[in-house]
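Hi R.,

Here's the chain you asked about this morning:
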Amino acid sequence: MATTAILTLSVLLAIVILAQNAKGSGLAAGFSAAYQFAGVARTTHFLNRATWVIGGTLMLFCLVS
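And the predicted structure, written out as tokens:
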């Protein structure tokens, strides 16, 4: 079960990291065009927060297993 969780978290982390772009023209820009109420800054903040949470959870699972 821990192996499945680690693999799933690894794939999610890779997707979230690839969605980010330092110049603001990555996946975050596409979300802001579709949802004008959110804005690029808010979407970028969400992707940044998701990276830290998924990364920390992945490290925890690796240490426990």
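The mean pLDDT is 80.

Let me know if you need anything else.
M.
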